[in-house]
Automatic annotation (TrEMBL):
It catalyses: beta-D-fructose 6-phosphate + diphosphate = beta-D-fructose 1,6-bisphosphate + phosphate + H(+). It comes from Urochloa decumbens. Its main location: cytoplasm. The keyword Acetylation does not apply. Pathway: Carbohydrate degradation; glycolysis; D-glyceraldehyde 3-phosphate and glycerone phosphate from D-glucose: step 3/4. GO terms for biological process: photosynthesis. This is Pyrophosphate--fructose 6-phosphate 1-phosphotransferase subunit alpha.
Amino acid sequence: MNADLGSPRELTGLQRRRALYQPELPPCLQGTRVRVEFGESTTSIDPKCADIVAQAFPQTFGQKLVHFLEPNSMASDTQVIKEQPPIRVGVLFSGRQSPGGHNVIWGIYDAMKARNPHNVLLGFVGGTEGLFAKETMEITNDVLSSYKNQGGFDLLGRTVDQIRTKEQVNAAMSTCCDLSLDGLIIIGGVTSNSDAAQLAETFAKHNCKTKVIGVPVTLSGDLKNQFVETTVGFDTVCKVNSQLISNVCLDAVSAGKYYYFVRLMGGKASHVAFECALQSHPNMVILGEEVALSKLTLMEIINKICDGVEVRAAQGKYHGVLVIPEGLIESIPEMYALMQEINNLHINNVTEDEIPSQLSPWAAALFKFLPPFIRRELVLHQESDNSAQLSQIDTEQLLAHLVEAEMKRRTKEGNYKGRKFSSVCHFFGSQARGSLPSNFDSNYAYVLGHICVQIVATGLNGYMATVTNLKDSTNKWRCAAVPLTAMMSVRRHLRGPGAVPIGRPVIHPSPIDLKAESYAVLREKASSFLLDDFYRTPGGIQFEGPGANTKPITLTIEDQDYLGDIEILQDYLDKVRTILKPGCSREILKAAISSMASVNDVLKVMSAPLHAELPLYHFN
């Protein structure tokens, strides 16, 4: 393990000032007493998968939604968490570093010490490998002092980000038992929280007292569903990347002769590219979700980009900025099929050098068509979740290469009479991962840390700490614990009536909702972005003054307060129960039966699994 992990940092003036920032807490977490309210039992996100998830997770499926509230009026289904005997909790980073991760640990520490000064928080040094090897350090205020509101994961570090095999799970359970941990908190994204769910199930099966809790921390923002509005780090990463993109936009319009192809880190989904496009207004943005639903081929994408270049050239503009997500290449049908073949060969232990000769004829033909640098990158060894190394595939250079070839062809044939096309390529990846977290991410992470402690104190296993109503001020945030199994589903092999779920239940990355209001805003502005150089300069992250508390645009546009809506529904149901007490008139009873029957029919149809594709949204 790296001996420097957890060592005191030498902070700059800005870092010292940020270390003094005290994150805000919602009212329910500000005191030493918290009211816990148990809601209804949960199901899975996809109704068709509920039985499969239940079979795979018999110990932890169907657990209740839990709300953490201010300890005021008491109800029969609530309890108050008071000071209890000392507890021991372990925490680790499992996933790519994301701004704000350290504040989760800070929040855990403060909440534990507020409950009982003798509580012990152990950090696993080196992520999951540190967990297996029992490599720990005790988290103290002195240790935390130079990591508060700081970027990176270098307090504890991370390694393989995997707790999946029988040996790994058994090693994790052995560590938790040997250290007598009451709770194990795993900080990470979709893969890490899926592993946390499996670990919780195994612990429950073997009567291990350790409660496993997940925290949604990932820069890609793809751990998103009814309960999780956004992830820790997404806001900061988008702010940093948007500043870089806006700088590139101003450079492009100043020189007037280059097209900048910018690829953004963010995994399979396009959330980072989407948010950055709304913040910086590049001329073009291609979202993987659009390409997948429209089934655009590689050359169709190239032609659309070239058409945009021609339209701008007609206005005397020979510059521009194109933004793409790193997952775009997997959204292109023929590239996805090629990558699946390569993936299967990797699974069968075919070496990188031998893969080209083992491809099917059509895949070999496509592989040969691609530039040499892309061929080398496509056969690289896989990530820990057996997926392609998207960050290592220079999709932006592939597009620039093919666009240049197509523009030469159009020029030769006399269809394009403008200046020579020239491009510059960028990949913005790790540049943003270690950034000082924004105020929003600092607050959000710190609150999640506090919630984790309440989950342990309530004795909940297999839950994720969540906050909703995030677009509002901190004092209106809703804090809860949601069963990890409620976020799980099983991928279907094919779409259509005959599709059947395959594989094991996991939490899947959430794609952009192309029916959402935020997407409609982007499409409405697309023509202006393309033609008018409507560049926006958000500047660097602001920590004080105007702009310090801005939040992601996609978060503020959408109405996502799922827990708030559940409360509204519960209020209506309570009112109905009050009206329909035994002794009410027959007319009222009949009206209620008729209305409930209609509501039941509508909800039954809406809850049925979707067999058709989502509406088709074209790139242009």
